[in-house]
Amino acid sequence: MKKLLLQLDCDKYPSTFDTVTAYEAGVDNVLSYGGVMPTDVRGLLHGVMFTRPRADMRQTAVFIGGRQVDLCEHILLAAMDAMFDPYCLSVMLDSNGCNTASAAAVALIERSVTLKNARFVILSGFGPVGLRAAKLLVGEGAQVTVTSLPRELFLGSWDDNRARQDLRIAHAAAAESGFDILEASTRSEILELLHTADGVLSTGPAGVQILRRDDWLGLSSLKLLADLNVAPPYGIEAIEPQWRGLQQVGKILFGGLGIGGVKMQVHKAALMSLFAQDVILDTAEIYALAKELLRNR
User: Fold this and answer.
1) Tell me, what CATH number does 54's domain have?
2) Structural domain for 155, as ranges
3) What three-state secondary structure class fits 290?
4) Are 142 and 179 in contact (CB under 8 A)?
């Protein structure tokens, strides 16, 4: 019986990245649907649930993706509501890579430094990856502050409506998970935080440099710096994208490709686990898988 993955994407066109990754992981066939809304889910799921013998149900699974994280979360809820015993499928949510990227980053950080009571700053972290990374770091005992991208770095592209929405989402996540929020207007506001920080994770947009080399090089308290950006100029100057735990100038350094390689391993392992047992994979479950993967390397 072939492994069949139902790909539900809220974007107009299903992510080719997610489709290719599924095939690379070992899925035999991917049924991809774009523009999916929660009201569409029941019919799509029932179409794959009732066409295979119950003994082979485990060979069918569901992947939820797309750029609109809130919508993807509602699609996940709709999927869970559409299933019932014994017609249950495994489901993975990885909206725009937010769960696998944050899980890989924090799992690598957790393996490198002691997180209990450590002070961490997440730069430009109001997006899905930053907020999920903050939740995972808090779960490991860290004290976390998540900053916005400083307004001075928007270079004329500031959008008041988008900024208010991002701030609202960030405050809601902070209230739920127990981290702090800094709405930063300037880089100097961020530098004040770094003087007492043990680590920093940059999750900013491609091609935007948030920290210069001179900003962080002389900060003795900083033990670890990680940057998810892979497009130059990188989010943290002088961190090369391929670095994965490089120890230099008394600090542990991670670049976007170094983290991204683990992210891809986590993504593929998570997909394959869908066919091994009945699971719902969201942030916490994918993080646990990432930690296990690194322990077994």
Assistant:
1) 3.40.50.10280
2) 99-260
3) helix
4) no
Share of the chain above pLDDT 70, in %: 99
pLDDT in tens, 65-123: 999 999 999 999 999 999 998 889 999 999 999 999 999 999 999 999 999 999 999 99
Whole-number Å distance between alpha carbons of 82 and 43: 9
Question: Which residues make Cβ contacts (< 8 Å) with residue 126, sequence separation at least 6?
Answer: 146, 148, 149, 166, 167, 169, 170
Q: Residue 221: is its pLDDT beyond 90?
A: yes
Q: How many H helices and E strands in the chain?
A: 10, 12
Q: Are residues 248 and 146 in the same domain?
A: yes
Q: What does the block give as tokens for 212?
A: 């210069």
**Strand ranges (E), the chain:** 4-9, 29-33, 60-65, 90-93, 119-123, 143-147, 180-182, 199-202, 224-227, 244-248, 251-254, 280-281
Are 121 and 207 part of one and the same domain? yes
Examine the domain organization and report whether 247 and 140 are in the same domain. yes
Answer whether residue 293 is part of any domain: no
Percent of the chain with pLDDT over 90: 88
Residue 158's pLDDT band (boundaries 50, 70, 90)?
low
pLDDT averaged over every residue in the chain: 95
Domain count, the chain: 2
133 and 243 together in one domain:
yes
What residues contact residue 140 under an 8 Å CB cut-off, 6+ apart? Answer: 106, 110, 115, 116
User: pTM of the predicted model, to two decimals?
Assistant: 0.96
Residue 149 belongs to a domain? yes
